[in-house]
Amino acid sequence: MYVVMAARALEGKVALVTGGSRGIGRAIAERLARDGAAVAVAYARDEVAASETVARIRKDGGRAFAVRAELGRHGDAARLWAAFDAEGGEYAPGGRLDIIVNNAGIGRSSSLASLTEEEFDEVFAVNVRAPFFIVQQGLTRLRDGGRIINISSGAARLAMPEIIAYSSTKGALDTFTLNLAKELGPRGITVNSVAPGIVDTDVNASWLRGDPEAEAHAASLAALGRVGQPEDIADVVAFLASDDARWVTGRVIDATGGAGL
């Protein structure tokens, strides 16, 4: 009896996931690796978490390497790609890749009245400028037929004045997605945004975990009646990264569980 093993959806592909050491980014990196991609796990400072993510992927038989580059400062994209080349020779010959996932981001919960110029500059530098120049400088590396997936937020379509700067960055990222899709379409490269809602990650742990009332309230905001998990987002990203999504581009995929319906 012969057993025919199905080919994995991303076999032979190379992916970069920014903010890949923890939370949603880790779940995305692990899922893409399970689907066959060699994954560059980009991180800013937490080397331990990045090493853990790489180790988890390798333990499951996947391929991964860590790339350190702190985003939000001028020259960050160039430093990221230099680190990609330095660490990824075995996995990404010639520095070529197939999938870019712009997941790294920071939040600012200040209102319009209290937001400082420094906070404004920082959140836009990490959430908008960094993805812009990562893509700009990565286009010669990205193979035709590739994928760019930007992690946006459901906050971009909801009025939430208490996080006005953060929401604005995600709206800008969605506009970036739309324009990139048009520009890169002739190369067969698809570009899409994924917009999560409230997700149970370390970022939300301080107010969400261990507080039944907070968790119940967060769950009530979604039509599906629960708080999102990192894997919920990773699975959507995996679909967009695969050939199954070859005819989807320039879209914002809502992954909020139906928040605000």
UniProtKB/TrEMBL annotation:
Alphabetical UniProt keywords: Oxidoreductase
Q: Does the entry feature the keyword Ion transport, yes or no?
A: no
Entry-linked SUPFAM superfamilies: NAD(P)-binding Rossmann-fold domains
One Pfam entry for this protein is adh_short_C2
Keyword Transmembrane attached: no
Identify the InterPro entries for this entry. Answer: KR_dom (IPR057326), NAD(P)-bd_dom_sf (IPR036291), Sc_DH/Rdtase_CS (IPR020904), SDR_fam (IPR002347)
Describe the location of the Ketoreductase domain by residue ranges. 13-197
Q: Cite the NCBIfam families for this sequence.
A: PRK07231.1
Q: Which family does it belong to?
A: Belongs to the short-chain dehydrogenases/reductases (SDR) family.
Q: Which PANTHER family match?
A: OXIDOREDUCTASE, SHORT-CHAIN DEHYDROGENASE/REDUCTASE FAMILY (AFU_ORTHOLOGUE AFUA_5G02870), SHORT-CHAIN DEHYDROGENASE_REDUCTASE FAMILY PROTEIN
Q: What is this protein called?
A: SDR family oxidoreductase
**Species in which this protein is naturally found:** Actinoallomurus spadix
